[in-house]
Amino acid sequence: MAAYVLNISRIFSRELISASFQFYRYRSCLQRLPAVKPPPLSALFTHQFGSSAACWQEAEVQAAQTADRYKQRPWDYLDSEEYVERYGSSAVWAGYRRNHKGGIPPQKTRKTCIRGDKICGNPCPICRDPNIIVHHQNVKLLQQFISPHTGMVYDPTLTGVCMKQQKKLNEAINKARDDGLLPFQIPHVDFSGEDYSNTHDAVGLTSPPPLLSPSEPWYKWYGEISPDDKKVDQVKKIYKAYLKH
Amino acid sequence: IILHNYILTLFTFQLGHFPLKYFTSFFVSHMYLHSPRAGAKPRFTDAAVQDVLSRITGLDLQKVFRPIKQELKPPTYKLMTDEQLEQAIQVATEEAKKQLQMPPVLPERKPINDVLAVDKILDGMDTAKYVFTDITYNIPHRERFIVVREPDGTLRKATWEERDRFVQVYFPKQGRKLTPHVLFKEENLKTVFSQDRHEDVLNLCLVQFEPDSADYIRVHEATYEDLEKNGKYNLLRSTRHFGGLAWYLVNARRVDGLIVDMLRRDMLQDAISLVSLFYMVHPHSESAQEAAGQQATGTDLLKVRTTQSGYIDLALQAYEEKAAEGSAS
């Protein structure tokens, strides 16, 4: 029960941050807030029985509902007002800047932004917004990470996503291409110079040899050999576990 | 077919003064054309049929060479005289003809049910099947021996599906997957058709399936049916699939929609060629016999057809009115 309440409060704190439009300009400050530990248990319990209990509970329920709604249909978020307010018409990763020493960034982005419950400072464009879910049916989001000119997936050093999210993106894009939701370039097949008559023995009927009747065995010695009983018993004893009866 | 080509090459070498251009077009486009047998039903590979179909397909260079999504290079600019430009356009037309080569239309392949041996001595020895594939490099895939030993000791030839899978395992073809795309299931095909991506579906089908497999024929038929139902014939014009579409409609006797579409786009010659192809394939139908009786050519062929359906009549009238207006103004 305690863990459940803690989790709800964590989700609520994250939802409050992402849904608060008036704090849009202070996004950099807000990204630190999810790492803040929730208030201690006793304070929560006293709040529940306090005067602000009703509005806290409603807000928690709403937050849980929105998180669930985007979980079921992740593509709804990209049409919602919150998304337009936050990103406008530019891509999710536009304007994100990695923090690194020197002019040349490391050729691999960080391994992951979220470890357990902690989120790092300056998370990547996908991890910083919990409503963005990488799903193979979320075509609008996936297309933001594919170049419109070459059709290739952008490198993580360009978009800034962490390696774990990049891997999930690659899998989602491959699945979307497989399902036909994302178009891709198909190689040209040349059909000249191929014989489709199917007359070769490999794919046609091999007639049985004329000298053998269907009931006769293929090799003559199949019928003539009779096994030595002692040797058969020996072999049967060795392979007793594998025999059928 | 191979003998036919050798004779052709000998002929051209003897003459000596044929330009290389003609030689290459001979070699490529006449690969599997047959001469028609007297009195028999015309096949897809007949020279006359192929000629008509390639004329109907058209050759829109802008559509054939539209920019595709690939690794980008910086553009190159060339300064050309008019003659050089014409030569470049001719080279482009040859290349486009090669790209518009029609994929084969074959009847469905018969299943392979051939047992080579039954060895009762091996019954129950193992729980899995063993597949033995001949991986010699130089033999065509249709002459490759692939046999399966069942757990009950039967040695049989592999079925067509198994053959395709194992040939793909040992000799992978680019773009082909071991399990076909989920796209080819009925429900997903409908989604893709609603996005007008019929050409992509057909190209993917060509890459994935063999031309005589059941899946290939099923996907092609589904695509052609959807195109015919919605009248979206223009999507396939100037692609390699238009010939197949026209052939399917002619064999199913449902050319009316296509003729109306052609007349709407002012392609009278194409409509006439299509109708003449229809009479070639179905010489015993009423309109074919009427046309033969009247010795009709040109627009008269179409007028003979109009007795069967009113739509073509209206479309033909509209076309003639437009032509009259155009010539008057």
Shape of chain A: elongated
The number of helical runs of chain A is 10
Number of strands of chain A: 2
The largest inter-chain interface, given as chain pair and residues per side, is:
A-B, 31 and 47 residues
Biggest pleated sheet of chain A = 2 strands, antiparallel
Q: Count every helix of chain B, treating DSSP H or I runs of 4 or more residues as helices.
A: 15
Q: Which secondary-structure class do the elements of chain B indicate? A: mainly alpha
Task: Summarize the amount of helix of chain A as a percent range.
Answer: 40-55%
Overall shape of chain B: it is globular
The count of domains of chain B is 3
Instruction: Tell me the Rg of chain B in angstroms.
Output: 25 Å
Order of helices and strands of chain A: HHHHHEEHHHHH
Q: Beta-sheet strand percentage of chain A?
A: under 5%
- Total count of strands of chain B: 4
Strand line-up across the major sheet of chain A: 1-2
Runs of chain A in which pLDDT lies below 50 for 5 or more consecutive residues are 28-48
Q: List the uncertain runs of chain B.
A: 1-31
Descriptive report:
The complex is a heterodimer of chains A (245) and B (329). Helix content of chain A is 40%, strand content 2%. Chain A has 245 residues and is an all-alpha fold. Chain A has a two-stranded antiparallel sheet with strand order 1-2. In chain A, a hairpin with a 2-residue loop joins strand 1 (114-115) and strand 2. The longest helix of chain A has 20 residues, at 53-72. Chain B folds into three domains: 45-66 and 81-108 and 180-248, no CATH class; 115-158, no CATH class; 253-328, no CATH class. Chain B has helices spanning 2-15, 20-29, 47-57, 61-64, 82-99, 160-170, 186-194, 198-208, 214-230, 242-251, 256-264, 268-281, 286-294, 299-306, 310-328, and strands at 115-118, 130-133, 146-149, 154-157. Chain B has a four-stranded antiparallel sheet, covered by helices on one side. In chain B, helix 8 (198-208) packs antiparallel against helix 9 (214-230). Chain B is globular. Chain B: This is Mitochondrial ribosomal protein S22.
